[in-house]
Amino acid sequence: MAQADNAPDKGTRTRRVDVIVVGAGFAGMYAVYRFREMGKQVAGIEAGSDVGGVWYWNRYPGARCDLMSVDYSYGFSEEVQQEWTWSEQFAAQPEILAYANFVADRLDLRKHFAFDTRVTSAVWDDARRIWRATTDGGETLEAPYCIMATGPLSVPKDPDIPGIGRFRGQLLRAQRWPHEPVDFSGKRVGVIGTGSTGIQIVQTLGKEAGELFVFQRTPSYTLPMRNHDLEPDYVAEMKRHYPAMREAMRNNPTGGTRPVSTRPFFSLPPSQRLQAMEQAWENGGHTFLGSFADLMTNQEANDQVADFVRDKIGKIVKDPETAEALKPRGYPIFARRACLDTEYYETYNRPNVHLVDCLKAPIVEITERGVRTEAGETELDILIFATGYDALTGALLAFDVVGRDGLSLKEKWKSGPVSYLGFMVAGFPNLFAPSGPNGPAALANLITIAEHDVDWIAGAIEYMEENGIETTEATEKAEAAWMELVARLAERSLIRKAKTWWVGSNVKGKPQGLTMFVGGFNKYRDLCAAAADGYAGLSFEKARESAAA
């Protein structure tokens, strides 16, 4: 969609506003709305041509959210909730993008954004107590507050494989999929990457491609999604009970409506444990994670659930060698992102679908004609990278962010991200990053997190303005205490035992470690509420006129 008439022109050199918002995903859209409703002049900046964030870019075949539609939607606007109707339990990308566009239209948000625009630097001017954000169009925005709503998944990452530039066929990246249709019929198609994105692509293209070659470097556990259309009577019930459901989501560790059990795995006898797992498999979705309380802290319990899923794989996939290669081993189930599928394993029973086990024969290079492993070369017409993102910190480190006394965020985070509450960083006044890398981030419902974080930030700004305060930032002491808590919780979690983008292992040279808050969204919310009671973890500077008086 074209840039709004009253959005800033790229030729403008400098413009002063109250709040800069970087990103037009769900966090950025809500931030623009929230601060506008506070009476602020807001300037949004978005690299894409329209709203939607990751769902604007992710248009690959089979793209679908693995959170239920009722969870993955805004709760702040009763009008939006009542006027929008979801068609499926787990919405596909076109419907999610349509929802984002509906919200932008309904709340008149586009006029505040400059689209097709990237921030090249954001620098704190301590003398004037403002942020100066420079864009690739030559414009500089100035504002006392800067909201980095860049999200945890917005910087795509190519695989670390030699020869990518040599491939003469069609090279496609899942996270930057072309907007025009791609014809796979009769083509030899290769897919590198078998996380949630790769799984969705494979189960879709298995029915379309002439031949499909899946280069599997790390097998993923994936569970049946059991998606279905939403019946009108159920939708009506859901809309009547939205307030209660939203409150339940805010008090749920997942930030969603998924049930959470307090029942330890070994509190049930073996027959009942098996019955519970069978029921979770049949119900689909993330039911498993809500069946037992200790799956991510008790290795023996985790092992038994993993054995159950591996047994299911062996029963679904007809070729024993393929089935064995698809069975994940060497890391706890759910320590990598828990994937949901629609007949992913069944896809390998198709004669045109071939699994290339890269644990047995690793990929050596991309060639002009395809992919060469230690077992030989596979010629391809189309090669797809489904290799994920430089997650959590990638978007915030993609351009220069410079705080007080010339401190760059890249320098501050050279050993890994540190912050207070996940969204404030010591040394960076009036800078806020909702859904930041040290909060629940990718471990809970991102829209619930985004709404919570933006509301907290708005409350802090209201407090500042009511008390004549110009700047705030996290204290070094509060930041250190928060990171100590994050580390202490991570030490008890089995998540740290897998090599995933959750711990940074998918990016060469990136600091390793589980830096997300694994204590659950409800506990995170409680800690943030306590932090807002007096703001003891923040340092404040009064407006200069007040200080002089």
TrEMBL record:
Highest taxon listed in the record's lineage: Bacteria
GO MF, one annotated term:
oxidoreductase activity
Q: What class of enzyme is it?
A: oxidoreductase
Keywords (A to Z) from UniProt: FAD, Flavoprotein, Monooxygenase, NADP, Oxidoreductase
Q: Which cofactor does it need?
A: FAD
Give me the segments passing through the membrane: none
Q: Which residue intervals define the domain FAD/NAD(P)-binding in the entry?
A: 18-221
| Enzyme nomenclature, EC number | 1.14.13.-
One Pfam entry name? Pyr_redox_2
- Which Gene3D superfamilies does UniProt cross-reference here? FAD/NAD(P)-binding domain (3.50.50.60)
Record-stated family: Belongs to the FAD-binding monooxygenase family.
Return the protein name: NAD(P)/FAD-dependent oxidoreductase
Report the source organism.
Aquibium pacificus
Upper taxonomic lineage: Bacteria, Pseudomonadati, Pseudomonadota, Alphaproteobacteria, Hyphomicrobiales
